[in-house]
Design a protein that fits this description.
Layout (H helix, E strand, L loop, with lengths): L4 H20 L8 H17 L4 E4 L5 H8 L4 E5 L2 H10 L4 E4 L12 E7 L10 H11 E12 L3 E3 L3 E2 L2 E2 L4 E3 L2 H10 L3 E8 L9 E7 L7
Helix pairs in contact: 1-4
Length: about 220
C-alpha cells in the first residue's frame, strides 16, 4: 500500500532541516519551567508504575529522549526522518533510536510503560489522529502513561520554509478539547492538563495532556 503523502512530506522536510533544527531548537533544559515539570512528573509516574520503557515518538535528534533517560526512565526514540535518527544515534550512542511512523508502530501490544508525543503530532492530518492515538493505546501496557504536548488552536498551516530551509509539511492546530475527545475515544483516560498562552520563544498557545491506559479492575 502506498505511503500517505503527509508522511512522505514530513520525512523529506525533516531530513532537509535536521542539522538546522539542532542548531535552532533549544534543548530540554531551556524549556519553560512548567513544561519541564510536566516531563519530570511523567517520568516519575512511569518509574513508579513500572510496566515498561518509554517510547519518545517523533524524537527528532533525541534530546528529549536523553532528558527522560537522565530522569531515570528507560527510554528509546522513534522518528520518521533517517537524518534525525542519525543525529540522535551519534549524539546519544548508549540509547536506542529507530525509524518508524506513529501510524503503524513496530512495537508489541501492551509493551510500553509510557508514550511521549512531544510536539510531534501537529503534522498529522486530523483524520489520521484516531489511528495514531489507537497505536498509543495498543502499545501502552495497562496502567501506562501518555504525555502529549503540542500547539493548540483551530488552524491549518502550510509553510514553505522551516528552520531556514524549504519544507513541504503542513501543521494542523486543533482545539484542546478535540484532542482530549480523540484520546478518550481511543481508550485513554485524560488525568491532567496544562494550557499555556504564548510567551518567551513560543508564539502560539500550547498545552500538555497526561493520560493513562486504564488497568483492569481486580476481581
Amino acid at each position: 500500500m502506498a505511503e500517505p503523502s503527509f508522511l512522505t512530506a514530513v520525512r523529506e522536510s525533516y531530513d532537509t532541516v535536521a542539522a538546522d533544527y539542532v542548531e535552532r531548537v533549544p534543548p530540554p533544559a531551556a524549556l519553560d519551567p512548567l513544561s519541564r515539570a510536566m516531563l519530570a512528573g511523567f517520568a516519575e509516574l512511569v518509574r513508579t508504575a513500572g510496566p515498561g520503557p518509554v517510547a519518545d515518538l517523533g524524537c527528532g535528534p533525541g534530546r528529549v529522549t536523553a532528558h527522560l533517560a537522565g530522569l531515570g526512565v528507560s527510554a528509546f526514540g522513534v522518528d520518521l526522518s533517517p537524518k534525525m535518527i542519525g543525529l540522535a544515534r551519534r549524539a546519544y550512542p548508549d540509547l536506542r533510536f529507530t525509524e518508524g511512523s506513529m501510524t503503524a508502530l513496530e512495537i508489541g501490544g501492551d509493551e510500553l510503560g509510557g508514550v511521549l508525543a512531544w510536539y510531534s503530532t501537529h503534522h498529522t492530518p486530523p483524520q489520521w489522529l484516531p489511528a495514531v492515538f489507537a497505536e498509543f493505546h495498543r502499545t501502552l501496557a495497562p496502567g501506562g502513561y501518555l504525555l502529549w504536548g503540542d500547539y493548540v488552536g483551530d488552524e491549518r498551516l502550510q509553510p514553505t520554509q522551516g528552520y531556514g530551509r524549504p519544507v513541504s509539511y503542513e501543521s494542523y492546530l486543533l482545539p484542546l478539547e478535540r484532542v482530549v475527545g480523540l484520546l478518550e475515544q481511543a481508550g485513554l483516560l485524560v488525568t491532567a492538563r496544562l494550557e499555556q498562552e504564548p510567551g518567551g520563544r513560543v508564539n502560539r498557545p500550547h498545552a500538555c495532556l497526561l493520560a493513562r491506559k486504564p488497568a483492569p479492575i481486580p476481581i
